[in-house]
């Protein structure tokens, strides 16, 4: 079992490592220290903490998932090959549990298909090299960016909200590609 740390020791350790990485990126010219970039990094760290918190109780955020068979049926009886092709092309979000079983979050489905707007966000983030679980949490965890609501709910309110969520996804994907 890992050694428990005092709260202050834990926070100091995390922040020290984070500070070192930020200083290295500033020195390499990868980050320009502006108020805007400071806020972006602060928001990214806050989001990461929320995702980490959510990973322990993923069902709380992700909600229900369909297995491969029920997903194929829901999508009109498509073949396993067709489903796997959609996964390969980042057109559907598939999660794997610790046992290696596939699950497809229900929040991405609408009217017998993958909701086109949700699919666009999924594809943008997966193409940007976020992991499947990161994408699931990105969409499902409430965020201050989206008035304290999950992106997948916020974007359904209006076309303007969808465009804002898409712009955030594009930016996060670009940030990931630039830094990993």
Based on the model shown, name its key terms.
two-stranded antiparallel sheet; 180 residues; 2 domains; three-stranded antiparallel sheet; 9 helices; mainly alpha
Task: Give a short overview.
The protein has helices at 7-27, 35-56, 58-62, 68-74, 80-88, 116-127, 132-140, 151-154, 159-179, and strands at residues 65-66, 95-96, 102-105, 109-110, 113-114. It is mainly α. The chain folds into 2 domains: 1-51, no CATH class; 63-179, no CATH class.
Order of helices and strands: HHHEHHEEEEHHHH
Strand percentage lies at 5-15%
The global form is globular
**Low-confidence parts lasting 5 or more residues at pLDDT below 50?**
51-56
Number of domains: 2
Q: How would you classify the quaternary structure? A: single chain
Description:
It is a single chain. With 180 residues, this protein is mainly alpha-helical. The protein has two domains: 1-51, no CATH class; 63-179, no CATH class. It is built from nine helices and five strands; from the N terminus they run αααβααββββαααα. It has a three-stranded antiparallel β-sheet. A two-stranded antiparallel ribbon has the order 4-5.
């Amino acid at each position: 079992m890992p050694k428990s740390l005092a709260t202050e020791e834990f926070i100091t350790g995390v922040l020290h490592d984070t500070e070192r990485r930020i200083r290295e990126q500033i020195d390499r010219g990868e980050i320009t220290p502006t108020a805007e970039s400071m806020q972006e990094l602060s928001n990214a760290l806050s989001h990461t903490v929320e995702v980490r918190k959510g990973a322990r109780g993923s069902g709380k955020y992700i909600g229900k998932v369909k297995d491969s068979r029920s997903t194929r049926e829901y999508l009109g009886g498509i073949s396993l090959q067709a489903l796997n092709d959609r996964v390969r092309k980042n057109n559907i979000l598939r999660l794997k549990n610790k046992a290696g079983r596939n699950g497809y979050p229900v929040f991405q489905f609408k009217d017998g298909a993958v909701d086109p707007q949700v699919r666009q966000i999924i594809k943008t983030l997966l193409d940007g090299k976020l992991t499947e679980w990161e994408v699931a949490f990105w969409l499902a965890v409430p965020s201050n960016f989206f008035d304290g609501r999950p992106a997948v709910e916020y974007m359904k309110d209006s076309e303007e909200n969808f465009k804002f969520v898409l712009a955030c996804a594009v930016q996060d994907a670009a940030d990931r590609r630039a830094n990993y």
